[in-house]
Amino acid sequence: MSDDNKNLSDDLNDMLGDAKEGAKKAADKASELAGEAKEKASEFADDAKEFAGDAKEKASEFANDVKDTLSDGKNVAIIAHITIIGWIIALVMNSGDKKSEYGSFYIRQMLGLALCGLVLSFIPMVGWLLNLGIFVLWIMSLIGSLSGEKKLVPALGSLFQDWFKSL
Q1: Max CA separation in the chain (angstroms)
Q2: Distance CA 144, CA 28 (A)
Q3: Closest Cα to residue 118, out of 106, 109, 131, 105?
Q4: How many CB atoms sit inside 10 A of residue 164's CB?
Q5: Number of Cβ atoms within 10 Å of the Cβ of 167
Q6: For 34-53, what is each residue's pLDDT tens digit?
Q7: Cα–Cα distance measured from residue 16 to residue 109, given in angstroms and rounded to the nearest whole number
Q8: Could you read off the pLDDT of 6-41 as tens digits, one per residue?
Q9: HEC states along the chain?
Q10: Do the Cβ atoms of 80 and 128 come closer than 8 Å?
Q11: Which top-level group of life is the source organism from (predicted)?
Q12: Which of 27, 52, 115, 135 is the one with CA 20 to 30 A from 11?
């Protein structure tokens, strides 16, 4: 029986050694996985910082685009179509370093239409009927300014651009 005890003791020692070796391998593997997780977390943090930087840059670009759009000549062109007071406001907005070719184009168009309407209003009957045509031309000019395209008023637009080129 002593041989059986000895064999049993040897088997237990072998099992304990195997258990210790298995525990050590498990600890090494856990340490390795923890290192990989730490590496991936670091990569993720770097990616998140890069994404945040890109998002900040895009937001800044968007803000600049909004500023450009608001200072764009399109607003000036649309305002120029709103009575003589709107035309004066558009002229002031388009003066100095903020001058845009698009805004100037429609300021010249509206000045020409306003002067034509004023002159035609002094001619009884025929002038009044022709003022309806001026109104149609005003509508066409307004639609052109809203669409963002430089559209000359039919028949007179090129003359207005030439006569009022200093504006």
Answers
A1: 139
A2: 74
A3: 131
A4: 16
A5: 16
A6: 888 888 888 888 888 888 88
A7: 98
A8: 777 777 777 777 778 888 888 888 888 888 888 888
A9: CHHHHHHHHHHHHHHHHHHHHHHHHHHHHHHHHHHHHHHHHHHHHHHHHHHHHHHHHHHHHHHHHHHHHHCCHHHHHHHHCCHHHHHHHHHHHCCHHHCCHHHHHHHHHHHHHHHHHHHHHCCCCHHHHHHHHHHHHHHHHHHHHHHCCCCCCCCCHHHHHHHCCCC
A10: no
A11: Bacteria
A12: 27
Answer whether 88's CB lies under 8 Å from 140's CB.
Answer: no
pTM here is: 0.56
CA distances to 25, 46, 53, 60, 71 from 57, rounded to whole Å, are: 48, 16, 6, 5, 21
**Amino acid occupying residue 73:** G
- Side chain identity at residue 113, one-letter code: L
Instruction: Work out the number of other CB atoms within 10 angstroms of the CB of residue 35.
Output: 10
Q: Which single residue is written with the structure tokens 């805004």?
A: 103
Q: Please classify residue 73 by burial: count the beta carbons closer than 10 Å to its beta carbon, then call 0-12 exposed, 13-18 middle and 19+ buried.
A: buried
